[in-house]
Model the fold of this input.
Amino acid sequence: MKAQGTTSVEKLLSISSEPLGPRPTSLTALFESCTLGPELFCMLEQKNGFYAFESALHVFPIASPNCMSLEEWNAPSLWRDGYQDLAGGLLFFSEDVFQDQFCLSSAGVLRFRSETGGTSFCADSIEKWAAAILQDYSRQTRWALASEWQRAHGPLPVGKRLMPKTPFFLGGEYSIDNLWVGDSVEGMRFKGDLAVQTRDVPDGASVRLVVGKPPIKQ
Done:
């Protein structure tokens, strides 16, 4: 499918799924503390949540009767409390297939590494975020491996993401043999626990993890 539109946001929306929720009618309080909140709302006003690149990219809707909403995803008690202060001050609005999150901060759009809780700068606007996705969607969304896995096992169900059997940051391979599909909420809770346990461990150091309840396999 060829992307259509003038702006990068329009082009991204043109190749994405049907909206995941009804069109929002007003700016919600969730966006008020974010400089880029109005820009995110503008995108979601055009298409309220969607999947793209064979579900490798997932953008949460503001509200939806059928799937996780942006407000529910950002509730402290759902999973983000598990990251403690690592998730503070961030509004999570999208994720790649391995649950690295795209989020709004005072600095712009950041990538939040789900296994470690670390962040890196992505863009200073939603338009530039969309441009970055379109320019290098395979790396930004992990599309290539997601596509390979789905050719072997079938489409990812709504609310599910691919999980590594051995975490990537602990040397797990980026291969379909190291992947299984699990519940997105349980996946983030599990990764939050790993991130907090290893946050002060130097690179290359040996670690001994205390593993709690793993994500639910599907």
Q: What stands out?
A: The mean pLDDT is 91. The first helix runs from residue 8 to 14.
